[in-house]
Amino acid sequence: MHFAYPPRKSSNPPPFRPRSTQLPLPRRSRLKTIALVFLGFVGALYLLFGSRKPGPYHERVPSGSPSVVLVTVVDPTTWNNAYLSTIKENREKYAERHGYEAMIVKAYDYDTRGAPQSWAKIMAMRHAVSKYPDCKFIWYLDQDAYIMDPTKSLEEHVLEPKKLESLMIKDYPVVPPDSIIKTFTHLRGQDADFIVSQDKEGLVHKSVIVRNGAWAKYFVETWFDPLYRTYNFQKAERHALEHIVQWHPTILSKLALVPQREFAAYSEPDLGDSYQDGDFVVMFEGCTELGPDSCETESSHYWPKWREAFGLK
């Protein structure tokens, strides 16, 4: 019996080719995607938790000492010095009673750079923020006004958050009578950084309260912007203020509008809410330097009253 021989191998076998170790292209693409997603996830974790190191800039948080700086700009070049001395005494006695700081400065101490000297009030506010970096609030009150009730601290009268929120006029035209820009409806008392009132014509810029901090610096610098100082607004810094609160949401979002009689009642009713006995402040809006309508004449009706309220002879 014959058996078939197996086929003889060729004496010239094909060259050896090692098996490829590369993955198929689709699989390699998937692995690359997974690796990129993993690296992105790790990077996000690092940014969230691993890189929280103190930066070079830290916003100063005022300690609240003094709690309020009461700022008034006087102009002895055009106003009677006897009248201005009563203004100075009024501010200093009130501040002394409540542990505030009274900052009475002269208008000509500031260079308004060609703008009307009334712009000095904004420069004085900026000066107060620099001079008293730890104060909590700046209250600017113009020279044509008296504080009439010394028993009321600014905190209990306006600034305490719940009290302020109860006073705030919400969803109301910022500039009367029909501005389409209205005060915010959801602003809380503790979040308000700028407190102001209205008269019949617009915002009462001669009695305003600003909370010290980063926002206050932004607000003051915006109000004093060279563009507004050179724009030749009809009522200078007042119209500039009304412009920025309507066109800058960052300012409007911090604005608390309160009734005028809270800290800006007028001695005459023609332009706004008139002063009544027991009100906190009386302002002599529209008073003149000389004549029967002078500030000195108008204030003379209130000078004995506030001195009596302060316990002064």
Task: Walk me through what this model shows.
With 313 residues, this protein is α/β, with parallel strands linked by helices. It has one domain (68-309): Alpha-Beta Complex (Spore Coat Polysaccharide Biosynthesis Protein SpsA, Chain A). Helices cover 36% and strands 12% of the residues. The chain has eleven helices and nine strands. The strands form two sheets. Strands 2-1-3-6-5-7 form a six-stranded mixed beta sheet, with helices on both faces.
Can you give me a brief rundown of this structure?
Belongs to the glycosyltransferase 34 family. This protein has helices at residues 25-50, 81-98, 120-131, 154-159, 161-167, 214-223, 226-229, 236-247, 249-252, 295-300, 303-309; strands at 68-74, 101-106, 137-141, 145-147, 194-196, 207-211, 255-257, 265-266, 281-283.
What structural keywords apply?
313 residues, alpha/beta, Spore Coat Polysaccharide Biosynthesis Protein SpsA, Chain A, six-stranded mixed beta sheet, 11 helices, 12% strand
Mean pLDDT, rounded to whole units? 87
CATH topology: Spore Coat Polysaccharide Biosynthesis Protein SpsA, Chain A
What is the radius of gyration?
34 Å
Task: Report on the biggest sheet.
Answer: 6 strands, mixed
How would the global form be characterised? elongated
**What kind of oligomer do you see?**
single chain
